[in-house]
Amino acid sequence: MNIIICPGINEIELTNSFVKELSNFDVERSVDKSINILVFPEKGILTLSAFHILRFLGDRLGNKLESPVIFISFSAGVVGAIAAATIWQLQRGNVTALIAIDGWGVPLAGSFPIHRLSHDYFTHWTSVILGSGGDNFYADPPVDHLSMWRSPQKVQGYWINPLTQFSQPQKYLNASEFLHLVLKRYK
Fold it and tell me: Do residues 60 and 38 touch, judged by C-beta distance below 8 A?
C-alpha cells in the first residue's frame, strides 16, 4: 500500500510526528504487505498544487498507475490532495481512498472512498455538507487545529458512520485508532 502524505502549511516537525505515529500501523502488517509512506516535500503554497503532488507521486511510483494509493492530507494540503487524487484516477491511477484531516471548507467528491477527521464538532458538521462519503471522526473534547496532525494518538473523539449514526451508538476512540481502523479496511 502506498500512502502519500500531503501536509498543510505547517512546520515539518508536525508532519514528522504524524508520520511517526502512522508508521506504528506498519508494525501490525505482514512483511509482504508493508506500507510505503511518501511525504510530499514541498512547503507553503505548493501544498495546494495538484501538479506538483502528481509530479512527486509519478517520480516515486515510476508512473505505475496500478499501484494502490491512499492520500492522507492535512489542512491546506487537502486542496492539493483532492485535486491530485482526482487527476491520478482520471489518468487510470488506482486511488484507494482519500483521508482529509481538518480540511475545513474544502469540497470533497470523488469515485473513491473519502473520510474526514475534524478537530471539533462544528468543523465536522460544516465540512460534511461539502462531501465526505465514508466514515468520519471528530474530536470531543475539541482540540486545536494542529493537534490533529501533531499527535493524533492524543485526540479523543467519535467515529461517525453515516449509515448507522442515528441507529447505533457512536464509537469513542482516538484519531490514531480511527486512522488505523480505516487503513486496515484498505490493506
Answer: yes
